[in-house]
């Protein structure tokens, strides 16, 4: 089920007693939080809504709360973060397990137990996991892919009557790695920027959305391969100025070259390659795009030279900046 | 009023006054105007880019405090320096006090500077507050090192990244300030200051302050250079120019002047490298050059020096730097460095990149040995090419020291050379050529680790190198061709292609024959040669050629130099009706080659390389004997031939060294 169905359930007051929320899109999970909170009247929230971190408090206070009747109201909401007892990580005692099962089988009417498992990988062989999976309403909130993110972004901006230029949108997705949650986090700034012009332009995005260092390594690798030596040197300097450790930069650069080589050597959809290489499919897509412009031999040489650079950094007392300059100037 | 530093006087008080961060200031202003400010901000960026100023301005404007009160402290704007208040307790007290309503203004604003200095516990304590802050509270964190901030903090704040200011922005701002201050200045001086500031306005103004203090009347270029320490590069450039002009004496004098002035040897080397780096970058990224004032000089220097030369100089300097670390005699090393640098510039006409220079001598060395005429016929073309090759090789020899050193390694080669000398009428040109070439061979032998590259089978592999020497070639060729053949040396191939060629026509019975005979054959050799040959195994054989695999590449290389051994081997093989043509390979290479061959066969590829199509590596080069020592003559302008003969005798004993005739130093 989706957030939409949850909303309907809430509107129709047809609420089950147990929800299990999974998925790795933080922004949507937050939204689910807010949605569930809306079940309880704000005035009652103090009494009838509580959030527990299972890893910190254990099961007992959660069950106590869940089994108490709502205090002046129709519902009592118990939100549980980190339900690690559903994973291979931790275990309930036999008594706890029994008590939990009992509580699930005979819930206090109106009470809701909501487990936020999010990214945790559930151990489906466990008895307790099995029974919860069978009894709970499952709300899965997987990460939005690039297309969905774009769509959500447009929807968001349309509602506020703000436009975004095409290159600004591309840059925004690039800098946030097309992650919906990250895009959402950047939007308040961009909206404030565009509050007069009602248009988000490229200057705004480049000036306001910080680049992750992985994205910058991507840029750096790009500049290196495109032989834009001056730009590459400038970027490297800026990164160092920003306090990046040369060794880390080198590792990122190496990783990017490696990714290019890996992507060049693998077939399949962006998704499947991404999951095989354990990188975001968007990065695979970008790598494929850039691979069209580079000679593979060059990528390979670059990879080896950067590797050499790392060895030198670790074994000699050479200024890393100097090493990079030297590499950059001689790389072709 | 007491003097106030420029950067304090001119600290921006409104968003309009902030330069270089227009997008950020505009966004913050808009947010305030629309009353849509967030509850937690993170300002990151290098120092001097306006983070703290922006935080202060933002705090005032959110609370509607006018510009005039900028310097007064306000009870609801609380500034904390996390560098000195980094514990959990400080953050807890913030958390507690955050729960009280602001006193005068609409918002209570905490500015936490250098936020990355907070301890982990403090971060966690802050986290809870950032997550659900009281409605009337805002946090502004400022940091220079955003990568030290936990991700949990980053995701809960609106993050603004302040950019390094461009030199132009800094310069414009300085010009503005100096006009306001009624301070005279030279425009170029501001360039120097802006570069030295590396993108930070505060640094720029501090340096400017110092320059003013140094010469209050006017900000001059000279003063700016003195304050930023850019003057010393003059001497370094002089030194480098002298080195490049091969004016060793002058360079040494400059060096001693620099050292006398009290400069540390390591410092000198570091500066030297920094200067060469500047040279390297001067065309590419002029604004990254450290020695801004000398851009013209650097450019001039750059036109004089090739990229490869520059690389070589850097390598030499780097070597010396390493050596220096293990020595107390720093001055001597620097003097040696000077000499080395001047000498290494010999290559100017024909720069050899580092990768090449390690490889080519090996290749040449291997070839050369084999350039001896076979007993039957002398292929003049081959000798010619070998002669050209020999010349190429010499490009890498620069010092007599190396000649002497390498000589020591190859007594057999010398012997062989001398035998030739007995039989041949060498032209009356300088006989040192002979030793020089030998030395080259040995130089090749010095690199046992490097595998022999496939190009080896093509003697004139590098036309570029050969042509560089065209003017010298004719002399060489003629002298070389005048050599009569004396001794039967086998034809030797190295490289992968010959292996494939032999494999494609391999005959099992031939190999069995060779393998059976081999142990006995080896026994017929002198003990030292036996030692070598025992590490060798026949691996495959066709009717024409035999593949021998060596356990150790180093021994293979040495054997290639060892004419005696090869000649004896050829004899022995002929006596046993085995093919005289040899393909030498190290065992590892052989394994690879065979695997490659098998793989190719499996994939259905037909291998049609025939040995005849490949140029053998070995033809005997008798020009050992002959060729004039052009290089030595050019480079060292010293005739060191007799010394070398003497030296060889000293090293190997009189009975081993048989020096026969030659015209100018008959023996």
TrEMBL record, chain A:
Residues 19-139 form the DNA polymerase III delta N-terminal domain. It holds the Pfam family DNA_pol3_delta_C. Keywords: DNA replication, DNA-directed DNA polymerase, Nucleotidyltransferase, Transferase. It is an enzyme of class 2 (transferase). Its EC number is 2.7.7.7. It catalyses: DNA(n) + a 2'-deoxyribonucleoside 5'-triphosphate = DNA(n+1) + diphosphate. It comes from the Bacteria. Residues 216-331 form the DNA polymerase III delta subunit-like C-terminal domain. PANTHER family: DNA POLYMERASE III SUBUNIT DELTA. Belongs to the DNA polymerase HolA subunit family. This is DNA polymerase III subunit delta. It comes from Fructobacillus cardui.
């Amino acid at each position: 089920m989706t957030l939409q169905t949850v909303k309907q359930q809430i509107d129709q007051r047809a609420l089950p007693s147990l929800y299990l929320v999974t998925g790795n899109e933080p922004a949507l999970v937050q939204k689910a939080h807010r949605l569930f909170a809306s079940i309880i009247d704000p005035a009652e929230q103090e009494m009838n809504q509580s959030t527990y971190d299972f890893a910190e408090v254990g099961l007992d206070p959660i069950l106590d709360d869940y089994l108490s009747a709502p205090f002046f109201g129709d519902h009592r909401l118990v939100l549980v973060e980190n339900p690690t007892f559903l994973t291979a990580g931790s275990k309930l005692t036999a008594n706890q397990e029994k008590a939990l099962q009992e509580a699930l089988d005979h819930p206090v009417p109106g009470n809701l137990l909501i487990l936020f498992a999010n990214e945790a990988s559930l151990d489906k062989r466990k008895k307790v996991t099995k029974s919860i999976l069978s009894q709970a309403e499952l709300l899965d909130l997987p990460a939005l892919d690039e297309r969905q993110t774009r769509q959500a972004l447009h929807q968001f901006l349309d509602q506020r009557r703000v436009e975004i230029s095409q290159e600004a949108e591309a840059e925004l997705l690039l800098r946030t790695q097309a992650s919906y949650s990250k895009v959402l986090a950047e939007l308040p700034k961009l909206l404030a920027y565009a509050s007069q012009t009602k248009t988000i332009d490229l200057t705004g995005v480049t000036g306001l959305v910080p680049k992750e260092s992985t994205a910058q390594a991507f840029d750096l690798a790009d500049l290196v391969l495109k032989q834009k030596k001056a730009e590459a040197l400038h970027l490297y300097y800026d990164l160092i100025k920003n306090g990046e450790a040369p060794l880390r930069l080198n590792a990122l650069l190496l990783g990017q070259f490696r990714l290019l080589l890996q992507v060049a050597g693998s077939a399949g959809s962006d998704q499947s390659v991404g999951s095989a290489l354990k990188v975001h499919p968007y990065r695979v897509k970008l790598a494929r795009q850039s691979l069209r412009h580079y000679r593979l031999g060059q990528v390979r040489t670059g990879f080896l030279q950067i590797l050499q650079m790392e060895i030198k950094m670790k074994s000699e007392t050479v200024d890393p900046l100097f090493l990079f300059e030297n590499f950059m100037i001689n790389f072709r | 009023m007491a003097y106030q530093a420029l950067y304090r006087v001119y600290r921006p008080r409104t968003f309009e006054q902030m330069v270089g961060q227009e997008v950020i200031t505009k966004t913050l202003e808009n947010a305030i105007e629309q009353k849509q400010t967030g509850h937690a901000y993170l300002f990151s960026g290098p120092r001097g880019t306006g983070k703290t100023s922006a935080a202060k301005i933002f705090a005032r404007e959110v609370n509607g405090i006018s510009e005039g009160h900028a310097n007064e402290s306000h009870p609801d704007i609380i500034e904390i320096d996390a560098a000195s208040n980094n514990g959990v307790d400080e953050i807890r007290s913030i958390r507690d006090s955050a729960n009280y309503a602001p006193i005068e203004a609409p918002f209570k604003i905490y500015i936490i500077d250098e936020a990355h200095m907070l301890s982990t516990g403090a971060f966690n304590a802050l986290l809870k507050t950032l997550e659900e802050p009281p409605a009337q509270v805002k946090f502004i964190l400022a940091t220079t090192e955003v990568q030290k901030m936990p991700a949990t903090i980053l995701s809960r704040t609106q993050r603004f990244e302040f950019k390094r200011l461009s030199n132009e922005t800094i310069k414009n701002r300085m010009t503005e300030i100096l006009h306001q201050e009624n301070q005279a200045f030279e425009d170029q001086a501001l360039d120097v200051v802006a570069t030295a500031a590396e993108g930070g306005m505060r640094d720029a103004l501090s340096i400017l302050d110092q320059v003013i203090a140094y010469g209050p009347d006017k900000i001059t270029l000279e003063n700016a250079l003195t304050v930023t320490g850019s003057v010393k590069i003059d001497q370094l450039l002089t030194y480098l120019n002298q080195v490049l002009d091969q004016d060793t004496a002058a360079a040494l004098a400059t060096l001693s002047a620099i050292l006398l002035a009290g400069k540390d040897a390591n410092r000198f080397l570091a500066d030297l490298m920094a200067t060469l780096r500047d040279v390297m970058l001067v065309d590419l990224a002029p604004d990254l050059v450290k020695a801004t004032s000398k851009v013209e000089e650097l450019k001039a220097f750059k036109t004089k020096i090739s990229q490869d030369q520059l690389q070589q100089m850097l390598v030499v300097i780097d070597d010396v730097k390493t050596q220096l670390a293990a020595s107390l005699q720093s001055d001597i090393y620097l003097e040696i460095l000077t000499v080395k640098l001047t000498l290494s510039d010999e290559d100017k006409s024909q720069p050899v990149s580092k990768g090449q220079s390690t490889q080519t001598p090996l290749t040449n060395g291997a070839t050369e040995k084999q350039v001896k005429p076979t007993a039957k016929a002398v292929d003049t073309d081959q000798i010619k090419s070998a002669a050209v090759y020999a010349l190429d090789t010499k490009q890498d020899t620069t010092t007599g020291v190396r000649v002497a050193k390498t000589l020591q390694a190859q007594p057999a080669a010398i012997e062989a050379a001398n035998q030739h000398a007995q039989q041949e009428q060498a032209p009356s040109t300088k006989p040192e050529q002979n030793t020089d070439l030998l030395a080259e061979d040995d130089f090749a032998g010095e690199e046992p680790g490097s595998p022999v590259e496939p190009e080896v089978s093509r003697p004139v592999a590098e036309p570029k190198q050969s042509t560089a020497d065209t003017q010298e070639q004719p002399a060489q060729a003629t002298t070389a061709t005048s050599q009569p053949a004396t001794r039967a040396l086998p034809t030797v191939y190295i490289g992968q292609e010959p292996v494939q060629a032999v494999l494609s026509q391999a005959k099992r019975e031939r190999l069995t024959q060779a393998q059976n005979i081999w142990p006995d054959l080896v026994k017929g050799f002198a003990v030292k040669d036996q030692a070598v040959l025992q590490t060798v195994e026949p691996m495959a054989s066709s009717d024409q050629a035999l593949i021998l695999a060596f356990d150790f590449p180093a021994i293979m290389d040495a054997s290639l130099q060892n004419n005696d051994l090869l000649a004896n081997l050829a004899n022995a093989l002929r006596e046993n009706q085995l093919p005289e043509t040899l393909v030498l390979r190290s065992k590892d290479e052989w394994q690879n080659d065979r695997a490659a061959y098998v793989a190719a066969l499996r994939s259905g590829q037909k291998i049609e390389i025939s040995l005849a199509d490949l140029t053998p590596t070995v033809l005997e080069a008798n020009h050992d004997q002959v060729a004039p020592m052009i290089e030595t003559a050019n480079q060292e302008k010293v005739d060191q031939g007799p010394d070398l003969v003497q030296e060889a005798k000293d090293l190997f004993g009189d009975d081993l060294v048989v020096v026969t005739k030659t015209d100018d130093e008959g023996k």
